[in-house]
Design brief:
By secondary structure, the chain is mainly alpha-helical. Helices cover 81% and strands 0% of the residues. It has one domain (3-152): Ferritin (Up-down Bundle), CATH 1.20.1260. The protein contains 7 helices and no strands.
Length: 159
């Protein structure tokens, strides 16, 4: 990966976090189950926390993210058109999130050393989501603990 493609991917992943936040917000609004609603709201907050944590790298590298309103609208639209229920959502997440973690780890490995702490913080949001998935079917309340732990972790400072 070249420096240009590293920076393009960084912006892309930031933008996807903005979309993801809106996606999970919408899903939270679509479910009637209060515990599922809480879990989906936490997932939205995790996406927000990850985006907020990586935002200083965009500033540092003079990168321009996508239009936040358009990204949020896209996330809302994707969620509204895809909600088929809780089990289906977990199935989809199970099939895709390990691949997302691989993508984040690849970006992390290619970033400059001074970006590593923030890139690792970005990857960790996916680790928290996967840990959530490991328990979400058997004990949803316990499954939310890794999400809360990630939200309690401060984002590193850009160097």
């Amino acid at each position: 990966m070249t420096q240009d493609s590293y920076l393009e991917t960084l912006v892309q992943y930031y933008d996807e976090e903005i979309e993801g936040e809106a996606y999970f917000e919408t899903l939270a609004n679509l479910t009637a189950d209060p515990t599922q609603k809480e879990a989906l709201s936490l997932l939205a907050q995790v996406e927000h926390h990850a985006a907020k944590g990586v935002a200083p790298l965009l500033v540092k590298h003079s990168l321009t993210p996508g239009d936040a309103a358009a990204l949020r609208a896209s996330g809302h639209k994707d969620a509204a058109g895809s909600w088929a229920g809780w089990d289906e959502l977990l199935d989809d997440m199970d099939s895709t999130y390990s691949g997302y973690l691989d993508d984040f780890r690849a970006l992390e490995a290619l970033g400059p050393s001074e970006d590593q702490p923030i890139l690792a913080f970005l990857s960790e949001h996916e680790v928290a989501a996967i840990a959530f998935l490991e328990k979400a079917r058997s004990d949803l309340n316990a499954a939310m603990t890794p999400l809360r732990n990630y939200l309690a972790s401060p984002a590193p400072v850009a160097r």
